[in-house]
Amino acid sequence: MSKLLEGKTALILGLANKWSIAYAIGQAMAREGAQLILTYQGERLQKTVTDLGAELGASKILCCDVTSDEDIARLTETLKADSVTLDAVVHSIAFANKEDLSRPFLETSRDGYLLAQNVSSYSFVAVCNAVVPLMPNGGSIMTLTYLGSTRVCPNYNVMGVAKAALEASVRYLAYDLGPRNIRVNAISAGPIKTASARGIKDFSAMHELVAAHSPMKRVTDPAEVGDSAVFLASHLGRGVTGNILFVDAGFQIMAM
Ligand code: NAP
Known about the structure:
Helix content: 40-55%
Distance between the termini: 41 Å
Number of helices: 7
Number of strands: 7
Bound molecules: NADP nicotinamide-adenine-dinucleotide phosphate
Oligomer: single chain
Mean pLDDT: 97
Order of helices and strands: EHEHEHEHEHEHHE
């Protein structure tokens, strides 16, 4: 069987370690023949991401803090200088202060609220705007979201509000970029044990609840998210834009 992403180049932002959802997406995309370009946030992660990038056969590994307009511009200038054309872009980035993921949402500070929005939501808009010139043939842009955008998941708090803004951004960006044949979607993954997830108070309880109550009676395997990202990036996903694709063992349909 031919590979689904043969001849395509994918930029993946947000790979921190081998537990990252971005890593599972990178594995799936590399398996399907995509050439990968990875970014990491800062020097702290350079060694780990370089090692994982070598394992995935990534052609470039670049630094980009998405809260910095200069970093985003430098990233796209570097790619442009190397005549890179992108077919897929994955934004797998979020951050909120740990205390805002444990105390009541009511007590969220202005700074904490803006930080979560800046890193987890606005950065997607900024990245989309920056990569569009690198996608002259159209393509697929995707981000990662969570059910806490529309339902109350205790302790998810400020991140749920950021994800709500992120999902609305997906729809507006899909509208803006549709005429260029660039599709914009989000994957809403079920709880997965990653470094970011461990910052949410009682995350293990969320994980266990999903395993007990989802229709499939299990949690989400990161590889399933990777395969859905391949679908969205591939020719098979060509009619899908502005969509929130749930990859969560069906948990989102349950009321009790
Ligand atoms: P992760 O491995 O910790 O990935 C989060 C990434 O965001 C890390 O690489 C992190 O880098 C990066 N990041 C944070 N601030 C950044 C900045 N200013 N500039 C550039 N990168 C920055 O955790 P993950 O669970 O895979 O999260 C990936 C995405 O999936 C997030 O959007 C998350 O909300 C979403 N998601 C996760 C789950 C889950 O249960 N795990 C479920 C649904 C959706 P540093 O490590 O350097 O901070």
